[in-house]
């Protein structure tokens, strides 16, 4: 494993005010329905703003001046097969299974934030499948090809906008930078508690084209069929978990799809090769 390059960080020469911390309890019925935790406590710490009378002067230095270098690497297997058979048949298949791991726990609390949550990302192993096949029908010179792609489910987010009136009851004051009528966003999901959509993202495309040959010039005239099976999986979800007393709204519109994969359609294709 290669060591990642050291990164520079902007470090204020003048120390800021000590961090403030508040803890808001999450009862079992305040967690998203698919959350694995029966109960949990979300902690958030924020630094109070430094006086702007004497603005800080930034010192550019190495991250390793504050601790070990961060680690970032990928674990997995990537496999691809290509085959060219006789009489115009081409096959291609590939798959990869893996995950990317990032770890900044050694220095994040000394440089970026006093909150160590999410300093280590260890997602589950996920698999992507891709394939392609094409064949030219002899005598009639018609090209038929198809492509398939299957991707893993999307990761979900659940951001809980807690009214500052509730935060005041826990903290005794309004959070730094907040207003009495505003909200403070608390992430219900983090790197240790991840949720994913319940479906893979799979689509199949197809092309049929007639080949015309004029000396050394080749002209393909055909039709492309995108999303052949008209799959309608979501490509984005609502990440706001609506606040309500006693969680009576059960998150409101949280986890509702906001965009869908485009429906099936066809288009004409004209290709000239020379």
Write the layout of secondary structure elements.
Blueprint: E1 8-12, E2 19-26, E3 40-47, E4 58-62, E5 71-84, E6 89-103, H1 108-111, E7 120-121, E8 126-137, E9 142-151, E10 159-163, H2 164-171, E11 183-187, E12 201-214, E13 217-226, E14 234-237, E15 257-260, E16 265-273
Antiparallel strand pairs: 1-4, 2-3, 5-6, 6-7, 6-8, 8-9, 9-12, 10-11, 12-13, 13-16, 14-15
Walkthrough of the structure:
- This protein has 274 residues and is mainly beta.
- Among the domains are: 68 residues, no CATH class; 100 residues, no CATH class.
- Helix content is 4%, strand content 47%.
- The strands form five sheets. Strands 5, 6, 7, 8, 9, 12, 13 and 16 form an eight-stranded antiparallel beta sheet that branches. Strands 1-4 form a two-stranded antiparallel ribbon. It has a two-stranded antiparallel sheet with strand order 2-3.
- A hairpin with a 4-residue loop joins β8 and β9.
- The radius of gyration is 27 Å and the shape is elongated.
- The two termini are 46 Å apart.
């Amino acid at each position: 494993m290669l060591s990642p390059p050291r990164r520079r960080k902007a470090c204020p020469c003048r120390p800021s005010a000590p961090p403030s911390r508040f803890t808001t309890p999450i009862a079992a019925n305040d967690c998203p329905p698919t959350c694995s935790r029966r109960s949990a406590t979300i902690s958030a710490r924020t630094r109070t703003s430094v006086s702007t009378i004497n603005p800080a002067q930034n010192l550019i230095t190495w991250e390793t001046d504050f601790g070990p270098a961060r680690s970032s690497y990928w674990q997995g297997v990537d496999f691809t097969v290509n085959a060219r058979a006789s009489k115009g048949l081409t096959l291609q298949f590939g798959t990869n299974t893996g995950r990317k791991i990032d770890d900044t726990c050694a220095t994040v609390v000394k440089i970026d934030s006093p909150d160590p949550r999410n300093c280590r990302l260890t997602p589950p192993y996920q698999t992507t499948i891709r394939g392609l096949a094409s064949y030219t029908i002899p005598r009639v010179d018609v090209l038929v090809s198809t492509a398939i792609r299957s991707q893993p489910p999307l990761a979900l987010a659940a951001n809980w906008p807690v009214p500052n009136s509730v935060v005041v009851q826990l903290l005794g004051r309004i959070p730094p930078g907040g207003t009495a009528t505003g909200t403070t966003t608390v992430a219900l999901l983090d790197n240790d508690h991840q949720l994913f959509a319940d479906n893979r993202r799979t689509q199949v495309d197809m092309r049929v084209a007639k080949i015309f040959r004029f000396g050394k010039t080749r002209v393909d005239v055909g039709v492309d069929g995108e999303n052949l099976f008209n799959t309608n999986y979501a490509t984005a979800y609502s990440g706001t978990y609506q606040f309500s007393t006693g969680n009576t709204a059960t998150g409101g519109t949280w986890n509702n799809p906001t965009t869908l994969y485009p429906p099936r359609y066809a288009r004409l294709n004209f290709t000239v090769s020379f």
